[in-house]
Specification:
The protein is α/β, with parallel strands linked by helices. Helix content is about 50%, strand content about 15%.
């Protein structure tokens, strides 16, 4: 690891198979070595990436993390191949909107009464959660949504289990709610994709790098039914993050304009915010492609993520430890 490596907090969004883009981002950052993950807050596929990275890090640092991430996504593709019918990916994508519509008219409790979940098998085979919980190298924060309260629940420390990660990725139309300590949980993307606030109250790095896989901007008005649903999903799963970024922008303005009295300043942190966005890399793909686990598709997204990370390192790494490389208010909250 380079002597100049700087610690950062990572915020990883969820988005099904599109999480392979994040895999590529992480792979390039780990290969480069100029930044080190000190904390990760993550949701759904982001949480899968987070635990795979951290578990691999315990074995062999950055190289172990890279190997663990690749092994996880290879397992996802292999398991998906066993469930996919003998159809080309293009045909599967054409059928995906019909599957999505059908899933909203049925219940996973009826269609999958035995609650079979291949992701559970993959996680348990790939990650030793007892070992993961005992490590203190990288702080993990996994977000899920409590069904009964509608609030975000953050699983960290001893509470980072396979069930917590599965709960974070539990889409209610497809999977049965995951019960933890008697409470049912659904996908964390509804309430925190990912949640940033856990970083404000813990001893985590002052630099925050957000890896987006749900496009923030799309030109034009969607008119086809599946395009409308695609955009609704993107807006919904970005909404909680946008709300938190609004709060971050507000606090930064208070601090930078010296509008807080000295005792109050101690309770606020002026985070340096950075972002790698998949708007360009993923804009050609609809929500239906989140179900595509073919190795060719996943590695294509990985390569797009690697390039996005390299571009960020070339243009924005120089600001790490000094200041934000994005203007939160201008880049997220205006226009």
């Amino acid at each position: 690891m380079p002597a100049r490596s700087q610690p950062v907090s990572l915020a990883l969004q969820g988005g099904g198979a599109h999480g392979a883009f994040t895999w590529g981002v992480l792979d390039a950052l780990l290969e480069d070595g100029r930044i080190t993950p000190g904390a990760i807050t993550a949701t759904s596929a982001g949480a899968m990436n987070a635990v795979a990275l951290t578990h691999g890090w315990l074995d062999n640092g950055p190289e172990g993390a890279r190997a663990s991430l690749e092994a996880f996504w290879q397992a996802v593709s292999n398991r998906g191949a066993a469930f996919r019918p003998m159809l080309p990916s293009s045909a599967l994508l054409r059928l995906a909107p019909f599957f999505d519509a059908f899933s909203r008219l049925t219940s996973p409790y009826d269609l999958n009464p035995f609650n079979l979940d291949p992701l559970k098998d993959i996680l348990k085979a790939q990650v030793d959660f007892d070992r993961l919980r005992n490590q203190s190298t990288i702080s993990l924060f996994v977000t899920a949504t409590c069904v009964t309260t509608g609030r975000a629940e953050i699983f960290s420390g001893e509470r980072v289990t396979a069930d917590a990660v599965l709960a974070s990725a539990c889409l209610p139309f497809i999977r049965q709610a995951v019960e933890i300590d008697g409470k049912p949980y659904w996908d964390g993307g509804f309430t925190g994709n990912p949640a940033l606030w856990p970083l404000f109250y813990k001893n985590t790095p002052d630099d925050l790098l957000i890896v987006h896989i749900n496009p923030l901007n799309r030109p034009g008005t969607p008119k086809a039914a599946d395009d409308i649903m695609n955009r609704v999903n993107e807006i919904t799963f970005n909404a909680s993050l946008m709300a938190e970024l609004r709060a971050v922008a507000f606090v930064k303005r208070l601090i930078e304009d010296d509008l807080l009295k000295d005792p109050a300043k101690a309770g606020f942190r002026n985070l340096h915010v950075h972002a790698i966005r998949a708007d360009e890399g993923l804009k050609q793909y609809s929500a239906a492609s989140k179900y595509d686990t073919s190795w060719r598709f996943l590695t294509g997204l990985r390569d797009a993520g690697r390039q996005a990370a390299k571009d960020w390192l070339d243009t924005c790494h120089v600001h790490v430890g000094k200041r934000s490389s994005v203007d939160v208010r201008a880049d997220y909250l205006q226009g």
